Amino acid sequence: MNNILIAVNVAVLLLLMSGLFIMQKKHVSFSKRVFTGLGLGIVFGFMIHLIYGAQHEVTIGTIDWFNIVGTGYVKLLQMVVMPLVFISIVGAFTRLKLTKNIGKISILVIGILLGTTAISAAIGIGSALGFGLDGIQLTEGEAEKARNEALVERVTTVENMTLPQQIIEFIPGNPFLDLTGARSTSTIAVVIFAAFIGVAYLGIKRKDPENAALFAKIIDSLYAIIMRVVTLILRLTPYGILAIITKVAATSDYDAIVKLGTFVVASYVALILVFIVHLLLLSFAKLSPVNYVKKGLPTLTFAFSSRSSAGTLPMTIKTQTKDFGVSEGIANFAGSFGLTIGQNGCAGVYPAMLAVMVAPAAGIDPFSPTFILTLILVVTISSFGVAGVGGGATFAALIVLSVMNLPVAIVGLLISVEPLIDMGRTALNVSGAMTAGVLTSKATGEFEKEVYQRPNVVEA
């Protein structure tokens, strides 16, 4: 009987996907198809949860099949991340788009990412204090106990790595290993390796123009192929979001969300405020925040649904170049660095809120100016080194809490609402990277304002 019910659910998903395909054939805009997939997924997932429950065999079996579409789509995006980053950075050198400002670009991108992370930490602190969040009120169930036991080894890893050691992790000792994405710092390592290849090309261009021209032609051809692959995959976005959000809605622990409702609301208030900061920064740069939201929303929606900054990277880069008018080199630098440095949501808001929540348990006054300033500084510095140990928000929180000598058990106590909050954090991380790309591009004069201002007519 369960197999029949699972088959019915799969048939419904296929029917909904057929509807999205018909919309595509009728040339309905990409954004509308993405949001239609999102809305249908929420309704369908909630119905599955309402009828069967999150842990029922039918739900588990159904989601297992749905993962072919949802997880499969994310994997396809991840498939092109490393080739896209490598070819795009090298191509920026062969097309002379990074030769003059590479140092300035790197400093601006990293500076904006770290600066917005410091602001994110301050907002996270304010939200936690404003809502009166207290970690002492949290209780530990079986799932939370298991999560905290699993974190013990990670805490040791975090405490044993100094900031210099974490920075060393960025260096590509084996670039071929990093091209497989095997390490948490692989993306940045590939950027560094590609930059070396680009600088080497410039040297060969002066000494041996013929071979340099051949190399440039090969890179241009590879870039055209990679971007075509990206375009083909992005066409699947509405279907991927439909399957992913259906899974989220069907398997979420709504009782836990209600129980920890204040923390969830406080988190999203902080995340929204940081997003508003991004829009204000664009306004100060005399760029329309409305255009940013309209053109960036499909990418942010996918980041929200997938909870994968790495999987969103191809969309992050393409949105910057095709919709925002950012140069290819800067778009790749901002997108790649944004994966591992200065993540506004995961490394900024989240660790700061947790630190405020557990401070009273350690005998610290969370309203103390000294504590607040120290916490903002620690969060900002730690956000640069998170990639050295990997693991996103969890490791960011572990690093900050360990450095501040605060209890780390709270990280495991929030496991039940982690997926819901992580959706918003991931979208904010991606927004931070795109904002850094736009602002850097404008500051260096490598920005096509007319592209940013024109209506979004580019379809994936």
TrEMBL record:
Q: Which InterPro entries does this chain map to? A: Na-dicarboxylate_symporter, Na:dicarbo_symporter_sf
What membrane topology is given? Multi-pass membrane protein
Q: Does the keyword Electron transport apply?
A: no
Listed A to Z, the keywords are:
Amino-acid transport, Membrane, Transmembrane, Transmembrane helix, Transport
Q: Where in the cell is it found?
A: Membrane
Signal peptide as annotated in the record: none
Q: Where do the coiled-coil regions begin and end?
A: none
Query: Which residue spans traverse the membrane?
Result: 6-22, 34-52, 72-93, 105-129, 185-204, 225-245, 265-285, 371-389, 395-415
Give the primary localization class: membrane
The record's family statement is: Belongs to the dicarboxylate/amino acid:cation symporter (DAACS) (TC 2.A.23) family.
Query: What name appears for this protein in its UniProt entry?
Result: L-cystine uptake protein TcyP
